[in-house]
Amino acid sequence: xxxxxxxxxxxxxxxxxxxxxxxxxxxxxxxxxxxxxxxxxxxxxxxxxxxxxxxxxxxxxxxxxxxxxxxxxxxxxxxxxxxxxxxxxxxxxxxxxxxxxxxxxxxxxxxxxxxxxxxxxxxxxxxxxxxxxxxxxxxxxxxxxxxxxxxxxxxxxxxxxxxxxxxxxxxxxxxxxxxxxxxxxxxxxxxxxxxxxxxxxxxxxxxxxxxxxxxxxxxxxxxxxxxxxxxxxxxxxxxxxxxxxxxxxxxxxxxxxxxxxxxxxxxxxxxxxxxxxxxxxxxxxxxxxxxxxxxxxxxxxxxxxxxxxxxxxxxxxxxxxxxxxxxxxxxxxxxxxxxxxxxxxxxxxx
Amino acid sequence: xxxxxxxxxxxxxxxxxxxxxxxxxxxxxxxxxxxxxxxxxxxxxxxxxxxxxxxxxxxxxxxxxxxxxxxxxxxxxxxxxxxxxxxxxxxxxxxxxxxxxxxxxxxxxxxxxxxxxxxxxxxxxxxxxxxxxxxxxxxxxxxxxxxxxxxxxxxxxxxxxxxxxxxxxxxxxxxxxxxxxxxxxxxxxxxxxxxxxxxxxxxxxxxxxxxxxxxxxxxxxxxxxxxxxxxxxxxxxxx
Lengths: 350, 239
Description:
Chain A contains 13 helices and eleven strands. By secondary structure, chain A is of the alpha/beta class.
């Protein structure tokens, strides 16, 4: 819980990792990729405030104690959801596979959840694994990482026919939150591999699932916004937007927030720190303090206290069926209701 | 006489298709050496080793073509440094084999549809900036400011020396869209004239696409600064 100026905010961090990218976990022969990946992430961290930067060694592998301090003790987080990223062609145990994240389950109890994952290229075995993982961890969401390499393939799309049985399994098991991450991506090689059109099609075909587009589709925020306006079950995951832009590029950040509030709306945006790329503390404090820098932003929706409460925690709590203490909820009628249907906004959009 | 300045000027015509900015402004040209005999050796560097291979290929091959067109140039070498597919891309660019030769079996080999998709985004963003200029009090004097008047303008009515106007016309020509003096000043994706009713939402879309291109450029610059210590003139905050 975060408190500022008499207002109390329930904080639900929808995007964290407990990774091991230390050299001991690099796959022999793939060291170049494993090293390049974590160094790329480390460069992203430098976009946050200087006093939150870590050494590369610490960044490669951090402890459960570090996690507790950064996320819960200093970071105000009430509930955290870890999003797995496997990358097993590069990292022997995985970059942050579900088992690694699950090491934290006993320690943090109800305040920590693991999400699962699937990769349709794993076929029947993958389907059985998804079911077994769900049996063991009971997760309510999965993270899909379409840029993952697998047996010579450099990526996949949600519209691949092989993905269909996996979505059906999610519906059957009530795994209703599908977090989708595009990139840093590669495939299809001759098309725009950041394109979110496949999410659009999958969201239409599966109205009972919620599709959370991580990093708001960056670097294709425009395609994402046009889609989210039309699809009631598509949400914006704010990880990277806050961490990567709020401090380093405040003017861009203001424009992004304005556009997201206009096209997507405060009821469908969710905070995610992307820890350990960035610590949650400064992001949460900054979001609550944030406002548009000047009146050139007057035609964008306002960033109200109610909007902050929804985006920092209440929206995600709703998706994950997490009970929010009475004093941290919005009063009846507080906050603007979501626009019912903004589809006309993009009629004729190219 | 070939000079480095001439070669750099040629490289300045090469855009990152994804960001709609010249590779010279972005800091992607790591070095450019011109020998006494007219041989040119250019090294490109990108913000991360994982930058998309298709855009990386387009920039490398466009750079090679642009330098080859400089009169008097002899041998041209364009090398992409420190990228996870640098080997494939450099071999294909040097051999003139196209994208299909770089990644046999993994692509159709044709990047023109990808290029066009991003040219269309760039045109929307550029036109949006032209309209913002026309509607602003700081716009050229005598320029109409209401929506109906703006959509009624023709190309000949636009201030010809305005850089964004010129950039729009270049792109319209490349995309095969009408760009003569009596053609509409602003065009929809199919080349037709926009209506006053369409303009407010069209402007919102243009502004969002412009923001997307701009913020991706910003992220790339930030990463390039961290990776290569490149000075970033657009940096907002000292980190």
